[in-house]
Write a structure and sequence with these properties.
TIM Barrel; globular; 8-stranded parallel beta sheet
């Protein structure tokens, strides 16, 4: 039985790519040096896969920033504006990813990759502009593998997924582009060396409910690609969900192999097998690529044996469920983890060995059926309807029209990171650390007062990460030293691990928020990470329903919120950027998911007084389909990412009659580019076309921890200036200003 993985982390076991990229962007490394780092990481990935015993090494999975962006370059479908000024391919690439302050380029929008915490760059094909396709990135990995005597399997993101997740311009029906894309994919395959006999075409969009036009264009496009492959084997690759709804285009594609994510299947596997064309094999993704626990080898082998009995062993491949991009690199880098817990974990390297060894594993005869019921705590609420709360809060807070605030975090400087490191290493004691953090908070408050921001935050200097920090202050979590996972580009996160029951035994944010509030008469906003996001951005335990874990976290956060309220904090923000991200792809179970997610949010807020203003924050979300659930959260203010993706996201709020406050993110915090006050004024004008001035809050897209202080202060000053200018225009009844 052949074995393979869908992809390996690009970032490196010691985040080598992250540091090389940041040095390259800072002008400290040349492009040649960056490419040498990339080659070294590719070869290390190949070596690991080969030594583990996998049948193939996967190529084409490595990316300097994002594979959707790589696909944009491969197809020659860069937006025209990123090709001006004689930019090199790499300059255009990073301008699309990060923006370019010098040339005044904004970055392309960024969204979550299906239901993961990975972000992808949204392609924007310009139908009226084309560059030559560039297959260099695709072929170079294959050539490198062959040169070093590895057996390569090339991986490409498929045309249907590329189109489904893109925003083409100058065309009404983007699916009309499928035939053109198919031709380019045919050319790409023909450019691959003959030694590359197995090709992975990734179409995770098949695990969603595809629109009719996608269905109609899918089969002819993929048949054309299959014809171009000649005698090479093509694998139609799905993951993150159950593609049963799209069985017809899968079976009629003509492909040789279908990859199924066995960790996400909800329907009986026999439903697939009974209809599978005789020429098609199954790649069984039995090793979970999205969690860090060891595989139940007996259960996984039972699935492989069942498939082998039905199809024959020569028609079954053993695989990871998805790319191992979503796992840390190597458990052997964890030196301080409790040995009992460590022995239950497998990271990317170890999962390669699991995949390779499963075909020869001797499974015990075990009953794998389990059932665990979630415990549900009912919501008890004394809070009045929003219209009543709004009046009470307005009188208490006394804020101006278009109040300004930030999402929560301020720059995490080297000095702050050094403080945490010194405390951890015992170089300073707790008193010295606390004194230094108070100095940082004091400086944050003074910056905000000088800028004229209306609702202040303490800036979160004590927080390493919005999920990890809360985990460190709750029971039931453990932490990794080097468990880094790529979120986007050079941005890495180190998710905590939930292994036991979650409980609050001490205040989490109270001390720092109270101190910040003591420094000003302006309203202070406390920042909490919500239960779904803490759980989603952690590696979850697998022995109980996820909603039970959410509920445990929600109860802990309710206790924290009540103490904040009692301390006189007038605004509490509960961040839930994973609210949509965690949504299952299967529409049949989405309603239950939202019921649980909303209930856990309101377990926190329902105990608060009408006078306490509840905010929430979400970013990179598609709001149209979930607006009823957003309303059910019953938050007083929601802040959203809108600057990077365009204010059009506010259409959802307008169409659905959203009445609560809305902080439409005014500018993209992931770009070093500083927007002018005039530009931000125009953005506020656009916001006012969708929602009334009485609802609008003015804030950046997201937290500011990744930015430097110079660009942060300049951008915030321009934001405050734009808000003040617009208030003046509204007070003068400027028709243009009030839409």
């Amino acid at each position: 039985m052949l074995s393979h993985i869908l992809g390996f982390p690009s970032i490196g076991s010691e985040r080598e790519l992250k540091f090389a990229l940041e040095d390259f962007w800072a002008g400290k490394k040349s492009l040649t040096e960056l490419e040498k780092t990339a080659e070294k990481l590719k070869l290390e990935s190949f070596r690991i896969q080969k030594e583990a015993g996998l049948s193939y090494v996967t190529t084409g999975d490595f990316s300097f920033y994002d594979r959707m962006l790589d696909t944009t370059l491969m197809l020659g479908m860069l937006p025209r504006r990123y090709t001006f000024n004689n930019l090199s391919k790499m300059e255009s690439y990073f301008a699309m990813a990060r923006g370019d302050a010098l040339r005044n380029f904004q970055a392309l929008p960024m969204k979550k990759w299906f239901n993961t915490n990975y972000h992808y760059i949204v392609p924007e094909p310009d139908v009226k502009f084309r560059q030559e396709p560039d297959f260099t990135q695709l072929t170079s990995g294959v050539v490198l593998a062959i040169k070093h005597r590895y057996r390569p399997k090339a991986a490409l993101i498929g045309p249907a997924t590329f189109l489904a997740l893109s925003n083409p311009v100058w065309i009404k029906n983007k699916w009309e582009l499928m035939d053109e894309l198919a031709e380019i994919y045919c050319a790409a395959i023909k450019h691959l060396p003959a030694e590359c006999s197995f090709i992975q075409i990734e179409e995770p969009i098949l695990s969603t409910e595809m629109e009719k036009e996608a269905w109609l264009s899918f089969i002819p496009a993929h048949r054309k690609i299959k014809d171009a492959a000649s005698d090479r084997k093509l694998m139609l690759t799905t993951y993150f969900g159950d593609p049963l709804l799209n069985a017809t285009p899968i079976y009629d594609s003509g492909y040789d192999v279908i990859h199924l994510d066995m960790t996400s299947l909800k329907h009986d596997l026999k439903d697939y097998i009974s209809e599978l064309p005789a020429h098609m094999s199954v790649s069984a993704g039995v090793v979970n690529g999205r969690n860090i626990w060891k595989t139940d080898m007996d259960k996984a082998k039972g699935i492989l044996d069942m498939l082998s009995n039905k199809l024959g062993e020569d028609r079954v491949l053993c695989a990871s469920s998805c790319s191992l991009l979503h796992c840390p690199a190597d458990i052997r880098n964890e030196h301080k983890l409790d040995e009992k817990l460590k022995n239950k974990m497998a990271f990317a390297v170890q999962k390669c060995y699991e995949v390779a060894s499963l075909p020869t594993h001797k499974a015990a005869e075990t009953d794998f059926s389990t059932s665990t019921s979630a415990v549900r705590t009912e919501i008890t609420s004394d809070r009045s309807p929003y219209a009543i709360r709004k009046t009470i809060q307005a009188e208490k807070l006394n804020l101006p029209l278009l109040p300004t605030t930030t999402i929560g975090s301020f720059p995490q400087t080297q000095q702050i990171r050094s403080l945490r490191r010194k405390l951890k290493n015992g170089e300073i004691n707790e008193d010295a650390y606390e004194s230094a953090i108070k100095q940082e908070i004091y400086a944050n408050i003074q910056h905000q007062l000088k800028l004229g921001i209306d609702v202040l935050v303490h800036g979160e200097p004590e927080r390493n990460d919005m999920a990890e920090y809360f985990g460190e202050n709750l029971d039931g979590f453990c932490f990794l030293e080097n468990g880094w996972v790529q979120s986007f580009g050079s941005r890495c996160v180190k998710p905590p691990v939930i292994y036991g029951d979650v409980k609050r035994t001490k205040p989490i944010t109270l001390k720092w928020t109270k101190y910040a509030a003591s420094l000003t008469d302006k309203p202070m906003k406390a920042i909490l990470t919500g239960p779904v996001t803490i759980a989603k951005w952690s590696f979850m335990r697998e022995d109980m329903p996820q909603e039970t874990v959410w509920e445990q976290i929600a109860i802990a956060l309710r206790e924290e919120s009540l103490e904040l309220e009692e301390a006189g904090i007038p605004i509490i923000q509960i961040d839930e950027p994973a609210f949509v991200e965690a949504m299952p792809l299967d529409k049949n179970i989405q309603e239950q998911y939202f019921d649980d997610a909303v209930r856990c949010f309101r377990l926190i807020t329902s105990a608060l007084k009408d006078s306490t203003q509840v905010h929430t924050h979400m970013c990179y979300s598609e709001f149209d389909s979930i607006m009823p659930h957003i309303k059910r959260l019953d938050a007083d203010v929601i802040s959203i990412e809108a600057g990077r993706s365009g204010m059009g996201v506010l259409n959802s709020f307008k169409r659905n009659g959203y009445e609560s406050g809305i902080g439409a993110g005014l500018y993209d915090i992931h770009s070093s580019r500083i927007p002018t006050a005039t530009e931000l004024s125009v953005s506020i004008e656009r916001i006012l076309r969708y929602i009334s001035a009485e609802q609008v809050w003015i804030n950046p897209d997201c937290g500011l921890k990744t930015r430097g202080w110079g660009e942060t202060l300049s951008a915030l000053q321009n934001m405050v200036t734009a808000a003040i200018l617009m208030r003046g225009r509204i007070e003068k009844n400027d028709e243009k200003a009030i839409g």
